[in-house]
Specification:
About 35% of the residues lie in helices and about 15% in strands. It is an alpha/beta fold. A seven-stranded mixed β-sheet has the order 2-10-9-8-5-3-4, with helices on both faces. Strands 11-12-14 form a three-stranded antiparallel β-sheet. A two-stranded parallel sheet has the order 1-13. Helix 1 packs across helix 7, helix 3 (about 75-90) runs parallel beside helix 4 and helix 8 (about 260-280) runs parallel beside helix 10. Bound molecules: 4'-deoxy-4'-aminopyridoxal-5'-phosphate. 4'-deoxy-4'-aminopyridoxal-5'-phosphate binds near residues 103 and 151.
Length: about 350
């Protein structure tokens, strides 16, 4: 088999090797069924058991209270940008948005089509290099929406925003879900695309409070109603069976690693080492403010575009792939999600040191 290399891709991203091996083994026959995992009917006993186990493990992993529904939906996190407002807002309502990057900007654009949007804070003035400390809410927002980790700009909230009054909290956790413990009870709804910390692309995990599901809009297409998906256990139409299966394996893997607290320690260790290396470097520097730095996406530059390009090529030759930063930040981005191995972070640090020695 071809040697695997270090994959710093922001998503789809690296998965645990044991998960890939188990998925491979079950491609031809899921357990002893004689039918491969991707060939099973979503209405059959075998897949229904896979789905139930994935949900049970997800609940155990994140300590999801009983009054929350776990949904496996489609359309990516981008669909949540409008599914959230059309379920929860009427034209007269106002929703507050914390704007900390390009994905929050997109969610605002969508919500504006359905209701009033109040921007409670924005870090656009410095190209989203920080998480604002000050938030100004509108008098009576229906909900407060934020992006817990900004994949492109390498920033992450260190604590949850506190919505005012009866407003509920909505979180786009696409790029840091299950990277640290989460107090689900503080949220109305959490959503995350699967392709970073959860599995292959193709599912959006939605964790939503039951009373919000029950009171959501009815005059919208069935496929967009959380209620319809909740009532049909995510099988209203054909779900992405394979992705749900692999997500289930990832949940099991996370449990076997010691759960979310253990994951948080590992992530702090991995990112901490990389940030320390950047702080000590005279050639490279991180782009995010120190107190806003993401443990998932580490963004850095040399300050010289041509040198950045040389470093990316240099790293590529050493089997470090996917380090090119997003065009709106430039430079490099090391995406080091849960499944990214410590040895890969060490290899990047070595490459940085060697590049500094040889490119003075
Ligand atoms: N939100 C965040 C924080 C993201 O990083 C991304 C994708 N990189 C999205 C939303 C959009 O996700 P999708 O491609 O699943 O629609």
């Amino acid at each position: 088999m071809t040697q695997r290399i270090y994959n710093f891709s922001p998503g789809p991203a690296v998965l645990p090797e044991s998960v890939l091996e188990e998925a491979r083994d079950n491609l031809l026959s899921l357990g002893k069924t004689g039918i491969g995992i991707i060939e099973h009917s979503h209405r059959g006993k075998a897949f229904i058991a896979v789905l139930a186990q994935a949900e049970a493990d997800c609940r155990a992993l994140a300590g999801i209270p009983d009054n929350y529904r776990v949904l496996f939906l489609q359309g990516g996190a981008s669909t949540q940008f409008f599914q959230v407002p059309i379920n929860f807002l009427t034209k007269e309502d106002t929703a507050d948005y914390l704007v900390t990057g390009a994905w929050s900007e997109k969610s605002v654009e969508q919500a504006r089509r359905y209701a009033n949007v109040h921007i409670a804070c924005s870090s656009k003035d410095r190209n989203y290099a920080y998480i604002p400390a000050q938030v100004e809410y509108s008098p009576r927002p229906k909900y407060v929406h934020f992006t817990s980790n900004n994949t492109i700009f390498g920033t992450q909230f260190k604590s949850d925003p506190q919505p005012p009054g009866d407003a509920f909290l909505i979180c786009d956790a696409s790029s840091d879900i299950f990277s640290r413990p989460i107090d689900v009870a503080k949220y109305g709804l959490i959503y995350a695309g699967s392709q970073k910390n959860l599995g292959p692309a193709g599912v959006t995990l939605v964790i939503v409070r039951d009373d919000l599901v029950k009171s959501a809009a009815l005059d919208i297409p069935d496929m967009l109603q959380y209620r319809i998906h909740a009532e049909n256990d995510s099988c209203y139409n054909t779900p992405p069976t394979f992705v749900i299966y692999v997500m289930g394996l990832v949940f099991k893997w996370l449990l076997s690693q010691g759960g979310l607290a253990a994951m948080a320690r590992k992530n702090e260790e991995k990112a901490g080492r990389l940030y320390e290396c950047l702080e000590q470097s005279s050639m490279f520097r991180g782009t995010a403010d120190r107190n806003s730095r993401s443990l998932m996406n580490v963004t850095f530059v040399t300050g010289n575009e041509s040198l950045d390009k040389q470093f990316i090529a240099f790293a590529q030759e050493r089997g470090l792939d996917g380090l090119k930063g997003h065009r709106s930040v430039g430079g490099m981005r090391a995406s080091i999600y849960n499944a990214f191995p410590e040895t890969g972070v060490n290899a990047l640090i070595e490459a940085i040191h060697e590049f500094e020695r040889t490119h003075k």
